[in-house]
Design a protein that fits this description.
The structure is a homodimer. Chain A has helices at 11-22, 34-47, 58-64, 74-84, 116-124, 160-172, 186-203; strands at 2-6, 26-31, 53-57, 67-70, 92-95, 129-132, 152-157, 176-179, 209-213. By secondary structure, the first copy, chain A, is of the alpha/beta class. Chain A has one domain (2-203): NAD(P)-binding Rossmann-like Domain (Rossmann fold, 3-Layer(aba) Sandwich). The A-B interface holds A 105-107, 109, 113, 138, 150-151, 154, 178-182, 184-185, 187-189, 191-192, 194-196, 198-199, 202-203, 205-215 and B 105-107, 109, 113, 138, 150-151, 154, 178-182, 184-185, 187-189, 191-192, 194-196, 198-199, 202-203, 205-215.
Chain lengths: 215, 215
């Protein structure tokens, strides 16, 4: 699969990219500036020379991909989607975006009353294939592709088939994906990121995560 | 400690009551009707004859207690608090309330935009000592006091001392309590209940829970 990671120059996006590249996917690191995307792709190739990773601007990345991952900070979500919207038609869009407030350890309620994932769908239109996932995965050990990540991925979306595809991508990244219901539920998963940041701070750790038990 | 459990006739409240009674606390099961509270207390005494468990109406229970646990359905939160408000002054109030929508597997956003826990504080006034906890603990195995519950309790509140007291009560119930930040964060923990209900349904289990990893 060809996977574009918009905002893939950040630690979360590039870590996921490395893991998916190791699972034989073709990765395109998108950035606002093509040179920045190319630069990070080059660095990732140094870590993992056999991998199929390239870099370019967000719009070109989205055009070339089968699956598009939105891994920008919340503040960049709206302009990034406006920029690449035409390239997303019919494609699975996975949003990793988790708005964090100030202080980051407090859940940030968006003025819209929605989750960032639902705001993305409103912007892209009802036919957009949006799935929210990976917001709670600490970037800390992500780039160390042999590191066993002790956490689950909660997956929210309104299409069972699309969520199933994301569950497979979780497996490819060494993670367990769990169907967590409708896209609306993404507000809880996005909020959990703030709780985990607070737990990291209080416990002086870098990668608190969650596991679902009893299943 | 004398612990009143308002709405303690339900499975969540009575399960917690049994576990705390086994840890030598005095438990008062509160109900809208004193006879109902007494009836459930009698049943719990049959399960655990040595325990100090009695039952009465919610207001009397709150008056007699050091710590008051609010374990009513969300729809009964406002009237119950209005009824017992005078008895809560200066006391630690632990709210277990998690609003669930229809269908229950979808997160329910309260029209106020707040969590149920923050609505409770608004109703009781800024000096109320409210801590939100136990919303994600399935009642299914709670009454089986020897059963090891494989899940954590996320604890939200604005007083560190009060949260510490709830962490101790978690230990008394055989659970690990984790400081999850400000009371505002309770909206995430309350919402998680809906996600866990959905996971229970999809996996055909009765007690999905969460664990915090990496700490």
């Amino acid at each position: 699969m060809i996977i574009a990671i918009l905002g893939g120059t950040g630690p979360e996006g590039s870590g996921l990219g490395l893991r998916w590249a190791a699972a034989e996917h073709t990765i395109i690191i998108g950035s606002r500036l093509a040179e920045k995307g190319q630069g990070v792709a080059k660095e990732l190739k140094t870590i993992s020379p056999e991998s199929d990773i390239s870099g370019t601007d967000n719009l070109s990345a989205a055009h070339e991909a089968d699956v598009v991952v939105l891994a920008v900070p919340y503040g960049a979500q709206q302009p990034t989607l406006a920029h690449v919207k035409e390239a997303l038609t019919g494609k699975l869009v996975i949003t990793v975006v988790a708005p964090v407030g100030k202080p980051a350890a407090r859940v940030y309620r968006l003025p819209s009353g929605l989750s960032a994932a639902e705001e993305a769908r409103e912007q892209l239109g009802e036919n957009a294939r949006i799935v929210a996932a990976f917001q709670n995965i600490s970037a800390h050990h992500l780039a160390d592709i042999d590191y066993h990540l002790d956490c689950d991925v909660l997956i929210c979306g309104d299409s069972k088939d699309d969520k199933q595809q994301v569950i497979s991508l979780c497996e490819d990244a060494g993670l367990r994906g769990i169907n967590a219901g409708a896209l609306q539920n993404a507000s809880v998963v996005e909020g959990l990121t703030s709780l985990l940041i607070g737990i990291n701070i209080r416990h002086r750790v870098k990668a608190a995560g969650i596991r679902i038990t009893g299943i």
